[in-house]
Write a structure and sequence with these properties.
63% helix, mainly alpha, globular, three-stranded mixed β-sheet
């Protein structure tokens, strides 16, 4: 159940069926089948289920009681058998497709759970789990009526509520009971050290969330919980760090399993072969464009790396002005979308905001924060920018996301026509819960995000086009550096040097990339360029089928209306539904 239990905690990008859209009959039938999976999720991870939008779970917390692995596995197997029985009786093709998605997702989760249980020592980042458990209730988009549940959840985490032991103590027990199992691999030392380094930001972040409301009477419960979390962190130092592994690499079968879970079907070596070719092609495009920008800006260089560094130097954004700038860029991109008829825009504004310090620590990169996912009543995704730090002299620390030329492609990816469009379309048009939530993987989500950058790029200012290519270069590099690192074909220092020197990426972003490939989310970063290739291939094949009848706005609207379908199912829908509907 690993995929299910982590939905809200890792802020996956997904939107479920909405009460704003009328449901077709097949959607209603499909949702009835998805409910049996949601019921299991509600029992095992009510925080994740509540984040998806299931009512009545705001006060509940995840099950970390004795026998949780055996219990979750048995529940999953029972659901798989029930879904297979229903598949044998179902005649509607779309519902059968959704049942297949649910069955595969659960079987993949069981396989992953078995591999991890048999090979890895359990390790829990309690600080982050509790922070997100409270944050998901106190989200500004939530009704104020939900806020008191945060105190009830807090008391259960702290073990104050009847029938509950402290969550931190349960986490210790689930790890310690596996200490004597021979051959288990501990968590990567660098990950544990970083979690401990950021722990206090999470703990104080919970207090800041509560203090930012008008809730009363939470202080004593919070103090108890905070003390437990700090004690847990000391236990991690004493018991987990000595058992942590020095080598970031996962066992090979676990890394290949991670790739599959992110939606990547290719082998590590195939990814390296495909991505290194793409990398060279993109780099050539950048070098051809750089002299044009240098002439326009008066730069005394034609090397794309130097041009990018000069663009960063000449266009820094202060922390108190970054939000206004990104909103202005969004308006310009929306004008391009309408003028060029790229996709149909929602009749409302997209949301952009700056994260809190705790949220920035948990997710240091720009990202999209999903809204309530089931029973949505008007909440929408928000494009979140990490908080910048102001120096003592009043200047602002800069990142690769805080200069003018860099804002274009990031806005296209995270906001419009990228993720915000992707998720808003699902909210407003309505798809089955399975297609919106359980079909989710990084390939179909991030593939659209990178493709969205590509369809906007020809209409951007030249400097925006160059940075768009730089980001694509980075995504191609991810698809070969991630497997190369995890196969031991390159060292972290060599990979970091390549990112900084050949891609003109700053040290902070480069370091985040290395951490991402090696222990934060091994395999996930390959999904961007892999999914982008799937989208580009699908568009080419669609144009070949339709020729003069091809309408890119209609094509993009159709793709967005399909939900989070994996590439092979999306291709089936395009070829068997969209193409016939477009032929004159």
């Amino acid at each position: 159940m690993r995929k299910l239990a982590t939905f809200s905690l890792i802020a996956v990008f997904s939107i479920a069926t909405s009460s704003l859209a009328e449901e077709p009959s097949w959607v209603e039938k499909s949702n009835e089948h998805a409910q049996v999976v949601l019921d299991v999720l509600a029992k095992l991870s009510p925080e994740g289920a509540g984040g998806l939008g299931i009512d009545g779970l705001d006060e509940e917390i995840s099950d970390l009681g004795p026998g949780i692995w055996e219990r979750s596995k048995q529940m999953s197997r029972e659901v798989v058998e029930e879904l297979k029985r229903r598949l044998g009786e179902e005649t509607d093709s779309k519902v059968r497709q959704d049942l297949g998605i649910l069955i595969k997702m659960l079987e993949d989760s069981i396989r992953s759970s078995d591999l991890n249980y048999e090979q890895m020592l359990p390790y829990y980042n309690v600080n982050q789990t509790v922070y997100y458990g409270v944050r998901s209730i106190l989200d500004p988009q939530n009704s104020r009526d939900r806020y008191p549940a945060a105190i009830a959840r807090l008391e259960k985490y702290a073990g104050i509520a009847d029938g509950h032991r402290p969550y931190a103590e349960l986490a210790k027990d689930r790890t310690a009971e596996r200490f004597d199992v021979e051959g288990l691999v501990g968590p990567f030392r660098g990950q544990v050290e970083q979690d401990l380094e950021r722990a206090d930001t999470m703990i104080t972040g919970i207090e800041e969330l509560l203090a930012g409301t008008d809730l009363q009477g939470w202080e004593e419960s919070y103090a108890t919980l905070a003390a437990q979390m700090r004690d847990y962190n000391e236990w991690v130092r004493a018991e987990i760090l000595p058992r942590a592994r020095a080598d970031y690499r996962l066992p090979v079968d676990l890394y290949e399993d991670a790739l599959r879970n992110w939606g990547v079907d290719a082998s590590p070596l195939d990814l390296i072969e495909q991505a290194t070719k793409g990398y060279m092609d993109i780099r050539g495009e950048m070098q051809a464009l750089a002299p044009l920008i240098a002439a326009e800006k008066g730069y005394d260089t034609t090397d794309y790396r130097e041009v990018i560094r000069l663009l960063k130097r000449d266009g820094p954004l202060d922390g108190d002005k970054i939000l206004d700038h990104y909103n202005a860029v969004l308006r310009d991109i929306e004008e391009i979308i309408v003028r060029e008829k790229l996709v149909t825009l929602p009749d409302r504004d997209a949301g952009i905001e700056v994260a809190s310090a705790a949220e920035s620590a948990a997710q240091p990169a720009p990202h999209l924060r999903p809204p309530r996912l089931i029973g949505n009543t008007g909440e929408y995704p928000v494009f979140v920018l990490p908080q910048l730090i102001q120096n003592e002299d009043g200047s602002w620390q800069q990142t690769d996301d805080t200069y003018e030329a860099g804002a274009w492609t990031l806005t296209a990816h995270e906001a419009r026509p990228g993720h915000e469009m992707q998720f808003s379309s699902i909210v407003e048009s309505g798809v089955s819960i399975t297609r919106a939530v359980f079909a989710f993987n990084s390939v179909n989500v991030e593939g659209w995000g990178l493709y969205a950058e590509a369809i906007v790029r020809p209409y951007l200012p030249l400097e925006g086009q160059l940075i768009s290519l730089q980001y694509r270069l980075m995504r191609a590099a991810r698809m070969f550096l991630d497997p190369m690192l995890n196969l031991g074909l390159i060292t972290p220092d060599e990979a970091k040097n390549l990112i900084m020197n050949d891609m003109a990426i700053g040290e902070s972003w480069a370091q985040n990339e290395i951490e991402r490939y090696t222990y934060r989310m091994p395999g996930q970063a390959t999904a961007y360029y892999y999914g982008y290739g799937k989208m580009q291939s699908l568009r080419t094949q669609t144009e070949l089928k339709l020729r003069d009848d091809f309408d890119q706005q209609a094509f993009h609207d159709f793709v967005l209306s399909q939900g989070m379908l994996p590439p092979h199912l999306l291709k089936d829908a395009v070829m068997n539904e969209f193409v016939p509907s477009q032929k004159n």
